[in-house]
Every structure is written in C-alpha cells, then in structure tokens.
Design goal:
single chain; about 350 residues; cobalt; 11 strands; nucleotide binding; 2 domains; Rossmann fold; alpha/beta; metal-binding; zinc; amino-acid biosynthesis
Length: about 350
C-alpha cells in the first residue's frame, strides 16, 4: 500500500492508496464509540455492505444513504444527516465515514465539521475525481447562486483510496476525474503533463497501474500545496485553475446537468486561452484544445448560452471581490498566477473566446 503524507497547520494525516486496511483505519479512527457511514445509492449498492462490515470491526455502524449526484449537496440533505446523527445518538466520540465520490465527501465532511462543533471523519473515495476533493479538508454544500458557497475547512483523519472501487466507473466518470488529474499536471508538473499527452489510452481508458500512478501524482501535488496554505489565503487558490468558469457553467446549467470534470475542462481551456492573450504565455493552446477534444471533453459553451447570464456566477466565485473576478492563469505550464479582471473586461474576453471557438 502506497502512502502520501498530508501535513497542514491544523492536522496531519495519511492518504493510503491500495486495498483498504483495517489496521490503517483503526490507527486513524481513534477508537470511536459509533460510526456513521454516509454513501449514495449507487455506491452503497456496490460496496456499502462490504465497508460496513469492515468498519463494524471498529465500532457499531449506522448507515445513511443519500441521493446520487450533485443535487445531494443541498441544505436539505445536510440537515437530514444531522437529524439522523442525533436520532442515532452520535456524540463527540463518534466518527463519520464518507464512502463515495466528491459529492458524498463534501457533504459528509461538512456534517462532520459542524456536528457538535466538529467530529472526526474519514474519506473512502470511489471516483477518480475524488482524488482531488478527498484531500485538503474542503467540505461544503451548494447554493442555487453558487457552488460550494456554504462550507468549512475540516481535515479528514485519513483517506483510503482503494483502486478496486474505480472498476465500475463509466467512461464519462473516468473522463470527469481526469480533468482534475490534468489540472494538477498543468499547474505543477510539465513532465507529468507530457506523460499524459503522450498516451491517449492512459487518459481515455487507464489500466490499474496507470490509475494508481495518476492518483498518487495528483495527491502529491495537492498535498504539497495544501501543506503551505491550508485555508486558501495564497497559493492554494492555484488549485482552482479552470474552476472559476467551470463552477459558473455548473451553476448556470443546473447542478448535475454536466459533470464537474467536463465543466472544469472547459474552464481550463478558457484559462489557457486567456493566459496566451493576456500574459503572452506560450501554452500551445491549439494543441491543448485538440488533445482535450480527442479525450472527448465536451464544449458546453454553446451558442444558446448567453455570456451575460452566467457571468454573474463567476462574480460569486470565492476568489472574487470588489466587483473583480480573479482567475488562475499560467505564465507557463507549472507556473500559475492570479490575475484580476473587471466584469466588463472578462465579459468582452469571454465573448471573443466564444466567437472564436464556436465559429
């Protein structure tokens, strides 16, 4: 089993990559008196009983199944979790386990962060996308006016990434997760990006060894950044490369209508185009766009979408302020910077970009 250490100002923990080990779970669980296992319908039907049995070796387990999909990151589901936890008499000596993708991890983590002012939780990710969201302590739920606008920083006690749980993922889900893999490469590791671009099969249909390699690389990059900036006061914002437009697309279209990764991929292409136009960067945008298309990432910025209608969602981005939209751009691959735009500037640039791309 591979391990990646994550060290922040508030805590330290390990990410385990390999078969889930009861010993490793026990080591980080700190003898909880009760465990609340939270999963979604799809994942629980596949792996829920297996994980419940494993956790049952540590403490009595209560299970709560939420809806599958981004819509589950709602106040209603969050409130239902807290109500269930109180009804099942969880207390400060209890623990929450999140079994699922990024939605379940964010939702369960936020419940853990706020239940009785915070109890421990562990992450058991089941998607490639969650190699990003399960690490770093960001938890939260969505608001109709913006994604992840309600939340807290709450580091997990441990993360257990078992590649067996990725075997049932669809091609679309693999592609969605691959967007975050590509993001990590673009902001931090030019050689990793070259490796990804050199083998389309590794991106479209990775084997187990390739998946394990990509998961570890992505987690190492994120862990290094989070260790320097836990609460996103500085360089952690670089991890939002592609997300300012990506989150706006998700909110505009309605959560769950497009995968997070597909939206972020579109956001990364726009950010790369902006980097060349505004910073004079040489990112070989044409090659990058062709590669994204060869990987089947869709182009959600269709003519029917009006820039002025989804631009307000970008203004609600957590990095925005004083009427300015701050985006992560690249001076070169592996060299991200923050760049501030007025609404008018960004709308004009986004309109220009869409005209070029849609013609």
């Amino acid at each position: 089993m591979e391990q990646v250490a994550v060290k922040t100002t508030s805590s330290s923990y390990n990410v385990y990559i390999g078969p889930v080990s009861l010993g490793a779970v026990k080591e980080c669980a700190e003898n909880p008196k009760k465990i609340l296992l939270i999963s979604d319908k799809t994942v629980y039907s596949l792996y829920g009983e297996q994980v419940k049995t494993l956790l049952g070796e540590i403490a009595p387990v209560e299970c709560l199944v939420v809806e599958s999909g981004e819509e589950a990151k709602s106040f209603e589901e969050y409130y239902r979790i807290l109500t269930f936890a109180l009804e099942k008499e969880l207390d400060r000596s209890s623990m929450i386990a999140a079994l699922g993708g990024g939605v379940v991890g964010d939702l369960a983590g936020f419940a853990a962060a706020t239940f009785m002012r915070g109890i421990p939780f562990i992450q058991i990710p089941t998607t490639l996308l969650a190699h990003d969201s399960a690490v770093g302590g960001k938890t939260g739920i969505n608001h109709p006016l913006g994604k992840n606008m309600i939340g807290a920083f709450h580091q997990p006690a441990g993360v257990f990434y078992d590649p067996q749980y990725l075997q049932t993922l669809s091609g679309g889900e693999i592609r969605s997760g691959m967007a975050e893999v590509i993001k990590h490469a673009m902001i931090a590791d030019p050689l990793f990006l070259e490796w990804l671009q050199s083998d389309s099969k590794a991106v479209m249909a990775p084997d187990g060894q390739q998946l394990a390699y990509m998961i570890k690389k992505g987690i190492e990059i994120k862990a290094q950044i989070v260790s320097q900036d836990e609460k996103e006061k500085g360089i952690r914002a670089y991890l939002n490369f592609g997300h300012t437009l990506g989150h706006a697309i998700e909110a505009y279209m309605g959560y769950g209508r497009i995968t997070h990764g597909d939206a972020v991929a579109s956001g990364m292409l726009f950010a790369a185009w902006l980097s060349e136009k505004v910073l004079g960067a040489d990112l070989n945008y044409t090659r990058l766009k062709e590669w994204f298309h060869s990987c089947s990432f869709p182009q959600p910025l269709v003519p029917e979408m009006k820039t002025e209608e989804f631009l307000p969602f970008m203004l609600k981005d957590k990095k925005a302020g004083a009427g300015k939209i701050i985006m992560v751009l690249l001076e070169r691959i592996g060299a991200p910077v923050l760049y501030s735009f007025s609404r008018e500037e960004l709308q004009a640039l986004l309109d220009r970009y869409r005209k070029e791309e849609l013609n």
